[in-house]
């Protein structure tokens, strides 16, 4: 009798992938804005007065085969987008095939090697970032635990009624071995080990009146990930050869990037320490490209991504591709529930400390007059005392009962505005304290209120206000699950040293959500930053006017 | 050339007629090769739960509503599992800047979910996710039967109503 069950078990153990019929997925995102000019906040009004960004992605898959296409419109593009986005057309098309051992994609694709410090092609639509590759991508897993990735193609450069690629090429391959599954070498062990290595090369024909420009620029590196019981380590070191560019002022130095994190994690506790060293690592297909265009690699910033309005919108730190030495520590702790301090639901405490310094560039023994154009020497983690950024923040989060949740957070920033220019009203170091609080009150099963109150105070050592002075933000959000929300937020520069600039940035917002679709309407003045409202987060530029966003996925 | 113009029209027509609230039965999870938090390779289409429902929730360590959703569900997760056999897979879209904090965040919060890593947004793109949080419900046959793009308190009850509807227990 028991034998009868065998085929049943066999059938139920068939995975869904083996039963896949034709499948269509995708999404649509449309953002319309009617804009007013507002020089105070740097919001411009284009000649057209209104702008529209529109995207529709359609993916089709059948068994192992898949294809995708994305239509894009910039009529004209939203504020904050690169100027080279314009018109309507196809911005992405790809086709590919996958099975357990092989993935290949032709046309457009996104891919990343290791931590991305040599190669990362990705899309971050809200920031107007898209460096999709166009060519061939292969991932091959001949045996479990061993993977080879290869990329070959051009990179998305502009959009003008359609995708326009770089003139140059990016080629690369990456291999990694996970000893946990590779011939089960470490299958039984508490020790886990993954090693990997990458090689990337770009080709671009370029001429320069003053300097000899290499057409091929190579870069390579290795990485290791280890885990033992509750401890983990992740390290990568990469080198880039002589790559004169407008970013580095056409020097012939090599570049390096080193990244390390070690940590400990258990239930209720996490500790992570990070270190990073970067020198001369801007790496673009076209050495004369600027801003966010044609970046081959991705250099992660070692700071928390803050989402509290005042912490996110005034002094956001960006990584310094020309060079920085940075450190970060994260401590996450949950005071257990049921204890006197932890309360009935437990209390979360998160502490984060990050800093970043200018590297030392040794010039002794360097003859600037010679033809080598190697103008300094530096070593990994060779740091000076010149501070770029320091961020200390502590967060305490507590669920009081079924109805009330409270979060209180304190930040201290020391922000070097000369190294990372975010304000035209300040020079040198800006020091500020920020306190934020958030209360969520669940009125009943469907209705809830969210309130935020935040303050920011800048003071230098002599107690004098810096930059735009002091700020306060208040937010009130009322939501009716699952369909509606209404919110009003005021960011008020009450302590600006210049009285005429004590501006209210007042916005009202409402949204309607139906399943995987949502419509939101925002009216008012808004500073740029990461903006979390109505239960989602997105990065936004400075605007003054009406914004209507429609998104759906299918 | 003219034929090219039909493609967007057909695509838009398709979008206009696709029901937004209830995804039609038959739509499956697309196959994408990513990794879980332990670094093991995952083919997303291989996801099963012995015929019980599965919730897939896209989140990030920097996304407050996402963590509110996962924390809120965590308080009820024992009961949900007992009553319906549901399993929750939380897919982190953190990139390299924050992906090392995923495991400590998960452990510190004490979440009992399966955690997948999607640092370059491959699975996110394949499922058509615009913003996080975005939550999908998959029935015992692997059909995507419900999805919701945001989180405010109370949404967890509506999600659970749908979980109970498709649960066979």
Can you describe what's shown?
The complex is a heterodimer of chains A (554) and B (169). Chain A is mainly beta. Chain A is built from two helices and 31 strands. Chain A has helices at 5-13, 309-313; strands at 23-35, 50-62, 65-74, 85-98, 102-109, 111-112, 120-121, 123-124, 129-130, 133-140, 146-160, 163-165, 169-178, 191-203, 216-228, 231-240, 255-266, 269-279, 323-335, 347-359, 383-399, 404-416, 429-442, 447-458, 470-480, 484-495, 504-514, 517-526, 529-533, 536-540, 543-553. Chain A has a 25-stranded mixed β-sheet that branches. Chain A has a two-stranded antiparallel sheet with strand order 6-7. In chain A, a hairpin with a 4-residue loop joins strand 23 and strand 24 (447-458). The radius of gyration of chain A is 26 Å and the shape is globular. Chain B is α/β, with parallel strands linked by helices and 169 residues long. Chain B has one domain: Glutaredoxin (3-Layer(aba) Sandwich), CATH 3.40.30.10. Chain B has helices spanning 2-17, 64-84, 102-109, 122-126, 155-166, and strands at 33-36, 41-43, 54-59, 87-92, 114-117, 134-138, 144-148. In chain B, strands 2-1-5-4-3-6-7 form a seven-stranded mixed β-sheet. The longest helix of chain B has 21 residues, at 64-84. Mean pLDDT of chain B is 85; it is low at 1-23. Classes of the chains: A mainly beta (554), B alpha/beta (169). Chains A and B meet through strand 1, strand 2, strand 3, strand 6 and strand 17 of A and helix 1, helix 2, helix 3, helix 4 and strand 7 of B.
